[in-house]
Amino acid sequence: MASPCEVLLPTADASLARRVGAQVAAEAWRIERKFSRYRDDSVVSRIHASRGEPVELDEESCSLLDFAARCFELSGGRFDITSGVLRRAWRFDGSDRLPSAAQVAALMPLVGFDKLGWSRPFLTVPEGMEIDLGGIGKEYAVDRALAVALTHWRGPVLVNFGGDLAANAPPPGGAWHVGIERPDTDREAALVLDVEQGALATSGDTHRYLIRDGVRYSHIMDVRTGW
């Protein structure tokens, strides 16, 4: 998941805690292997290797594509799993290297979920385009990890994968205390949220950004324009 991952449960049973942690870790690694764009043996790599030919997907992959399609529809195109190609122009590495308008414009024809051929269970990605499940994959992994934890432990659990987290119930004492990191500090909390049940995800320019002429550019983009 390219980030620290943890599962928290209030228990004095060290053996139980290790067992739950091992099961959560196994599920996280399974999802990483299956859907990461960085692995040659993942579903995403198999899709990209198809070079525009239809690929038949399994039920789990189909469910994620259906969810991505729904997110694209509900957001009016602002959430789009095909937008990962924009990383070829944008490198949020803390430097001052902004892309040119021409660089961004050249990539925009490769962005657009509605350009995919999606007819369950077959997906066709036009050659040159990509899909990137990073916008939903870690959140899906958190949901799955919580479900796995609850097969071994019926009490309160919080799963946190790099700031994307979910909890099934409050711990003894009232709530899980979730700190929102202040930019440019060593894990100092800008504020603390009390979470009893549900999920929370955060995204910002603390670690991924560009600075040019005193302006800090976040990696959160409008993928309809590429900016």
| Helix and strand composition category | alpha+beta
Report the principal-axis shape.
globular
Count, helices:
5
Radius of gyration: 19 Å
The beta-strand count equals 11
How far from one another are the termini? 25 Å
User: Which spans have pLDDT < 50 for at least 5 consecutive residues?
Assistant: none
Which strand order does the major sheet show? 1-5-6-9
Order of helices and strands: EHHEHHEEHEEEEEEE
- What is the beta-strand fraction? 15-25%
Reported for the largest beta sheet, the result is: 4 strands, antiparallel
Helicity range: 25-40%
Q: Averaging pLDDT over every residue, what do you get?
A: 94
Comma- or semicolon-separated keywords:
single chain; 227 residues; alpha+beta; 4-stranded antiparallel sheet; 3-stranded antiparallel sheet; globular
What does this 3D model show about the protein?
With 227 residues, this protein is an alpha+beta fold. It is globular, with a radius of gyration of 19 Å. Helix 1 runs antiparallel to helix 5 (134-149). The protein has 5 helices and 11 strands. It has a 4-stranded antiparallel beta sheet with strand order 1-5-6-9, covered by helices on one side. The protein has a 3-stranded antiparallel beta sheet with strand order 2-4-3, with no helix packed on it. A two-stranded antiparallel sheet has the order 7-8.
